[in-house]
Amino acid sequence: MVNEFDDFAENYRSIHDGNLKISGGDSNYFSEYKILEIKRRDGDKKIESIFDFGCGDGIPLSYFRKYFPKADLYGTDISEKSIEKAKNKNIPNSTIFLINDERDLQNIENKKFDMIFISCVFHHIDDEKKLNNILNECYRILKDSGVLYIFEHNPKNPFTRKIVKDCIFDKGVRLIKHKRLKKLVSNNNFKKISVNFTLFFPRFFLFNPLFIFEKILIKLPIGGQYYIRAKKI
């Protein structure tokens, strides 16, 4: 997977935009919507440090800087070329570094972050032991009362399945069901775990009036993506 994402790093956004055309949104739109959702849930809390596990080329970190302007940002990825692109964005108060595998998380000090963000990473990891190791380390490096967000594609949504199937850097992945992911999070000591579904309507202008209803539909498991929010108690 390291070599694969290194191969796509230079053209990742243009490839992704082409793949997302069916949805009415582009890569930046879907990066920003996740941070806006987090802002809506936790924007009133004192968030001093945010860790983006699987930060890619740094676009989500740019939006974290926009909506959480006072937080120190940290990002890591297994793709060296993606890390180079993220560093070249020169995001203020950000520390971006390469990891080779989940064991490198052990080098991070205990209780360092107020928030951990993991976006569309876990469906690339088919090894349950690795997933548990990552979640266990996330629990360790999260501060008491810190919050974990995991965004993933919803395998129950047919449009999502098509987008993933047609995506060149998602070839062969197996999407992770929300119940399985919630159980993994729970098994690694996280509490107050909630699952919300998002992106029920295409992002074309015609559907804009319907977006307000998505806040009502968050428990309906047919949205294009879902996210898990959990706390360290």
Q: How many strands, which pairing sense, and closed or not: the largest β-sheet?
A: 7 strands, mixed
Architecture per CATH nomenclature, i.e. the level-2 architecture: 3-Layer(aba) Sandwich
Low-confidence stretches: none
Assign the CATH class.
Alpha Beta
What do the pLDDT scores average to?
95
SSE ordering: HHHEHEHEEHEHHEE
Could you give me the name of the CATH homologous superfamily?
Vaccinia Virus protein VP39
Which strand order spans the largest sheet, edge to edge or round the barrel? Answer: 3-2-1-4-5-7-6
Structural class: alpha/beta
Instruction: Tell the overall outline.
Output: globular
Query: How many structural domains in the coordinates?
Result: 1
Through-space gap between termini:
34 Å
Helix content estimate: 25-40%
Structure write-up:
With 233 residues, this protein is α/β, with parallel strands linked by helices. It has one domain (2-231): 3-Layer(aba) Sandwich (Rossmann fold). It has 8 helices and 7 strands; from the N terminus they run H-H-H-E-H-E-H-E-E-H-E-H-H-E-E. The chain has helices at residues 2-8, 12-20, 27-42, 59-67, 80-88, 128-141, 158-166, 178-187; strands at residues 49-53, 72-77, 94-98, 113-119, 142-153, 191-198, 225-231. Strands 3-2-1-4-5-7-6 form a 7-stranded mixed beta sheet, sandwiched between helices. The chain is globular, with a radius of gyration of 17 Å.
